[in-house]
Structure formats: structure tokens, C-alpha cells
Amino acid sequence: MTTRTAIVTGAARGIGAATARRLAADGNAVAVLDRLEDQARETAEAIVADGGRAIAVGVDVTDESAVATAVERVAAELGAPTVLVNNAGILRDNLLFKMSVDDWDSVMDVHLRGAFLVTRAVQAHMVEARWGRIVNLSSISALGNRGQVNYAAAKAGIQGFTKSLAIELGKFGITANAVAPGFIVTDMTKQTAERMGISFEEFLDGVASQTPVPRAGQPDDIAHAVSFFCSEGAGYVSGQVLYVAGGPRA
Question: Does residue 151 carry a catalytic annotation?
């Protein structure tokens, strides 16, 4: 199997960490990018302990120069990156009339500006290699969700971004796809329960009762889907959005 170098953003914990571990298990060298550099290092060290190759890079994906420097470092230390997972994201949930401009801008910057900057920096290596896999994390919230006008708009934007990448980059052997998770058990979703003033167990029970597959999703559920899109065998799948959400909404 050809050894590839993968970059996963927002990979210090949750879905990003699970994805980084899965891509390493698939045989890729993995760069774990995150603002939380200490936690990113823990993810990278776990991969190395399991016999893989990985480095941790602390970076703010909204900072153009920092992104360029990070990608250059990855290329120098692990090899030219030809697999990219844009996972970095934040929540700033609120109802529209309570939402601040900063709440809106912060979410747009991390999800959309971040995905744009990292993809632009990495695509040059993919074009040179005439091979690449880009997977962007969208969300079921792209279909609309109360209290998330910023997040829903950003995640819908990710889908348009993905489809446009597929059109532009396909001739270079580069595919672009999106994975749209439903409810996934992470630190971020635990914070949502706290904001709602209910226990996380109650929150999970409510999610399960409304999901055709009656449970909450796990980070590994998403990592498995990302792994498929990044595989050699997925070379004729591009511009797609895969909802990993336990079934359609009722």
C-alpha cells in the first residue's frame, strides 16, 4: 500500500482525534493539527505508541500565515500531504435575536475560512502528486436547527465548498467529499447539554428516542466514513455528502 501523509484539523479530541487514529491505522502518516497543542500532542503520541507516524502541530486555522507554516512543516517532517480532513469547528449557539456578531463571525471563520485556508495550502501538494483526498466535516445541522443559524449556515456552506472543490480539482486526481454527522458524543455536545440545563444522560436519551438507530453516534462512526472517502478505492466518488446520523429525521 502506498504510504500517504494526512492532515486532520481539530484533531486534539473528539471526532478529529478518532479520525487521526483511524487514518494512521489505515497506514497513513498523520499530522494532528489543533489550537490545543498539548492535547494534539497526546493524540499524536498515542498514534506513535501504536506503531504509526504522527506529529502534532499547534495552529489557528483562521490565521493565513500560520496555516502556510504548518503545512510546510508537515511536508518537511512527514512528506507532502495528499489527504486532508477539515474537521476544525466551534459552537456559538444562540437564538437569532440573542446572537452577537462575534458569535456569527467566529463560527464562519473557523468552519469556512479555516477550511478554505488549509485546503488552499494543501491542494498544491495534491496537484503535484496528481492524487488527493479532501474530506470536509459538515453536519445534519446544515438542514436547519433551532439556535444554530451560524453553525447551520457554516455547515451548509461546507457542502457547497466541497462540491465546488470536486469540480475544480477532479482533473488532478483529487476527490472532495463531505461527512455530515448527526448527534455525536463529544466534549462539545456535552457542553450543549450543560447550556440546556439538563444532564448529559437525559440529553442522550432524548437523542436516541428521535433517531431510527436508537443511540447517539460515536466519533469512530464518523472516522469510519472518513476512512472510506480517503481510501484508494474511493477514487470515483467525489462531490458527495454522506449523512452519518443513524437515519433520516422523522
Answer: yes
